[in-house]
Write the structure tokens for this entry.
Amino acid sequence: MSTQYDAIGAKYDLFCDLPIQQMNHAAMMKHLGPIVHSKRILELACGTGFYTSKMLHMGASHVTAVDISSAMVSAAQAKIPVEMKDNITFCTADCAQSSMWNEVQLRGQEGTFDMVVAAWLLNYAETREMRRMLENIYLALKPGGILIALTVNAPIIDSFQPNDQLNPREAHLGSVYDVIGTVEGGYKILLSSVGLGENDIKFEFYFLREEVYRQAAAEAGMGQLEWNVVLLGEEHLQMQGPKFWQLYLDRPRSAICVSRKPKVELREQSSINISSGSELLTKTE
């Protein structure tokens, strides 16, 4: 993942201006706005710093922003006003590895964060990496702390198939998803932006089943995952009109996952049959 985003760098800001991304941003801001004030926040997959700067302006007491791509971190650092630099720490690290806690900016910070914000992080994990990411999120949070993660709308995975005929019709939204491979629990996806001309970008990620997310969260010790499908806000409906958004409404790709670290330290060892969705849980203190 580092290599593909090092190559994209600041072009990602242009991608963020496309219609579907603007809708995702609006949904995230509705989740973040009421709760970030005075909070100590760990942002994983900070990218070029869109949410980093927003959370600082909304009154977060401190944001530690982490990304695997040094190019992305550099772009994010450039956006922070001088007067806010005391409230932000940047770190280049792999959020899917426990070794991220060895980075000087994160050393000794386990269990000190009120919130973890992860916009487009979990969709870069295959099944095993998903658990490692969520274990790091569990370690980061104080008991009762909250995770807010923008990711793919996993429950609709079966609406995507190789050689999907719907994809070209969705191009006006600003990006298309193409299934380019099958992995355990889901698909490998190539996202292609549309409408940026020579600045169009492509990158790969994973679209995994809801059961994979739930199993990883349970095994990491997190509480129940709450899925919030990203739907159309009134401002976007008025701006582009209902016909523009109909294909997205028929197949909403994005969701915001919310989960809390239990106040009582209780891990769940979970075994899920991904094909059937059946789940067995045994709790251990």
Summary: DSSP finds nine helices and twelve strands in the chain.
